[in-house]
Amino acid sequence: MTNKEKYQRTFSVLHASELDLEETAMNKRKGIRISKRITAVCAAAAIVAAMSVGAYAADIGGIQRKVQIWFHGDQTAAVLDIQQQDSMTQYELKYTDENGEEREVHGGGVALDAFGNETPLSEDDIMEHISNQVEVLHKEDGSVWAYYKGCSMDITDKFDEDGYCYVQLKDGDDVIYLTVEPDGGYCTSSDKFITSND
Amino acid sequence: MRLTAEEAYRKFADNAFAAAFSICRDKTDADDAVHDTFIKYISKNMDYNDEEHIKAWLLRTAINRAKDFTRSFARKNSVPWEDYMDELEFAAPEDSELFEAVMKLPDKYRIVIHLFYYEEQSITEISKTLKRREGTVKSQLSRGRALLKEMLTEEWNND
What we know:
The complex is a heterodimer of chains A (about 200) and B (about 160).
Chain A: H1 3-11, H2 21-30, E1 63-71, E2 74-84, E3 89-96, E4 102-112, E5 118-120, H3 123-131, E6 134-138, E7 144-148, E8 151-154, E9 165-171, E10 174-180, E11 186-189
Antiparallel strand pairs in A: 1-2, 2-3, 3-4, 4-5, 6-7, 7-8, 9-10, 10-11
Chain B: H1 5-24, H2 27-44, H3 51-71, H4 81-85, H5 93-103, H6 107-117, H7 123-130, H8 134-152
Keywords (chain A): Membrane, Transmembrane, Transmembrane helix
Keywords (chain B): Sigma factor, Transcription, Transcription regulation
GO molecular function (chain B): DNA binding; sigma factor activity
């Protein structure tokens, strides 16, 4: 038996769970997202936001407000709904993208202090997290773009021979040091270039 | 061309799950990655060249989503792969040894090994799927194989 045959026999035991695609598609039409995941946010670090399938909390009366967010370098109106709970805070951000499609971002979590204690994120923590997010987008045409607030940059040709890309993204006086790694992951810092090995 | 979501799920969900699992080594995260991938498939309504194109897109999307989860801080409830392994019904005892050896590989080698042996992707295809340079993929594949040989000795051929 070849290694390939052995490998394929071994990993053929892995199966995806059943997924009701009809219900998923219907929920999408209704604008409903089913709760599956909550992304915890460490207050000390920039974290990738929980896109798509996120936690959809029933509206139990939280803080809802209209906000302006940066989306791919443009200011976009969005509705932010924050639900404070005993142990954590969840948020839901709804906006319309450049193609006119309604999008939802869900996230939330806890802040960790220096002793590892967890407290629910404050409204300010969440606003800061949302407004300081960096996004790296690998487009279908092969180009790679980085977005930070009002700054958008085509970084396709800025990768070095080891597959790393180091760029500074500036929005006014705000500067973010972005490192994109060969596997597509990225790290950001407000004072120096860092990698996942740091 | 385009497959319905049901057709695409029936044909490729297990492939997407196995690829996502080889990234995150967690059943829940891998399922979530597949779920997200198919929501995106339904949402994007893209046109594809053929079924292989659809499969490649699904694999790439599931892999990227699984990577997001591994970077997330929300992995408190993750089940160790060793526990999940107990639920799997391997066809032969040596299969569980191979599974364990692969799970012990460093992340960067594991997915390359998976795409090469399970998906039968070439170096060039793996390079495109993972957005890594071909030279990098080649050396990672070579190093991954060497590590498997060290762990599995005679159960792993010199191919």
